[in-house]
């Protein structure tokens, strides 16, 4: 699963691939989203999506490896990639609760193994930060 963002991440966070650090990724994402003028509801959706993406990526990590979280910003959007070393090339369980929630909460969710890495990628959009309003969505 090649990364669609050829350029450098706007923010990159590297930490141990352990469940206790998922909170750090969620908190970082929420802080970044607030700076991008996401609404409180959008930020909560992002926090949930990060939690589920972490639940997919961290168990697949080889022991002692890092989880790398990359954040890419666009107009009213944030694309997040969580990646870790996973030499067994695990397959995504699309029936898992974590995947079902992530696929519902985010746009363009994708996950899988490639070249000894397991990657989860998704985008969250804030309609307000993107400049649209509820009235525009009704037309």
Question: Can you tell me about this structure?
Answer:
- The protein has helices at residues 22-35, 40-57, 97-105, 134-138; strands at 11-16, 66-74, 77-85, 107-114, 117-125.
- It is globular.
- The protein contains 4 helices and 5 strands.
- β4 (107-114) and β5 form a beta hairpin.
- The model is unreliable at 133-139 (pLDDT under 50).
Write out key terms for the chains shown:
139 residues; 4 helices; 29% strand; five-stranded antiparallel beta sheet; alpha+beta; disordered C terminus; globular
Largest sheet: 5 strands, antiparallel
Number of strands: 5
The strand line-up of the biggest sheet is 1-2-3-5-4
Approximate shape: globular
Fraction of residues in helix: 25-40%
H-E order: EHHEEHEEH
Structural class: alpha+beta
Q: What's the average pLDDT?
A: 87
Query: What share of residues are in beta strands?
Result: 25-35%
Low-confidence stretches: 133-139
Task: Write a concise synopsis of the structure shown.
This protein is an alpha+beta fold and 139 residues long.
Tell me the layout of helices and strands.
Blueprint: E1 11-16, H1 22-35, H2 40-57, E2 66-74, E3 77-85, H3 97-105, E4 107-114, E5 117-125, H4 134-138
Antiparallel strand pairs: 1-2, 2-3, 3-5, 4-5
